[in-house]
Amino acid sequence: MLHEDELRVTIDVVPPRANEGGFFMSIFNTMSIVTPEGGLTTFGYALSIVAVIALVLSASWLSSRKKDSRKLSTKQLVFCAVAMALAFVTSYIKMVNFPFGGSITLFSMLFICLIGYWYGTGVGILTGLAYGILQFLQEPYVLSLFQVCCDYILAFAGLGLAGLFAKSKNGLIKGYVLGILVRGAFHTLGGYLYWMDYMPENFPQELAQLYPILYNYTYILAEGALTVVILLLPPVRKALKQVKQLAAEA
């Protein structure tokens, strides 16, 4: 049994420890990235913005490591920034909305593919990563880190793979098709892992197991088909060829 003095000491010591725990918990809450509702905290937004800046600087640094003839000049970096800005703006210009989700935008995916086609796969992927983070900042929803990667970061980075066909005949079309297929694959993976429970009740149950595939590739392939038709028009092909020449100039 404790004496009265010992009991008094014990009681006196406990509050400071509790305060210390509250102090560290307040720091932890301040540094939390995600809110309980699945959105971003102020710290989460700040961290994401830092990540975008870091990716842009990484693209610039990687280009500077290449031979002089392959470095990105200031003018070329501006082309990348303008193309990414156009992709971001046109992604919110929706020409068709599908009943179960997804929409056809004003050729938003094409602008990221153009960067890979102009400046190579590495720069294209890094730009796609930065663009994915921008999309995430606009409408953030977090179930897990890998879900964010599938829905935003890796999916849009896949558009940068258009650079793989930069030197082949009809390379832009081939690269564009590859890019959007890779984007759809990451969205579909995230759909099976995280979004099956969010399937609309009126979705045909006989197609339930195909829901992530149908949901994502319906709008991606629809916009892709429309974009390819536009790219095949002779005036558009000629104009894009001239833009590529301007983009490649130092």
Q: Can you count the beta strands?
A: 2
- Cα shape: globular
Number of domains: 1
Percent range for helical residues? Answer: 55-70%
Compact overview of the structure:
Helix 3 (74-90) runs antiparallel to helix 4 and helix 4 packs across helix 7 (171-195). The protein is mostly helical and 250 residues long.
Kindly describe this structure.
The chain is mostly helical and 250 residues long. It has one domain (37-248): Arp2/3 complex 21 kDa subunit ARPC3 (Orthogonal Bundle), CATH 1.10.1760.20. It has nine helices and two strands. Strands 1-2 form a two-stranded antiparallel ribbon.
Structure characteristics:
single chain; about 250 residues; mainly alpha; Arp2/3 complex 21 kDa subunit ARPC3; two-stranded antiparallel ribbon; 2 strands; globular; disordered N terminus
Reconstruct the topology from this structure.
Elements: H1 4-30, H2 42-64, H3 74-90, E1 94-97, E2 103-105, H4 108-119, H5 121-138, H6 145-157, H7 171-195, H8 211-231, H9 234-248
Antiparallel strand pairs: 1-2
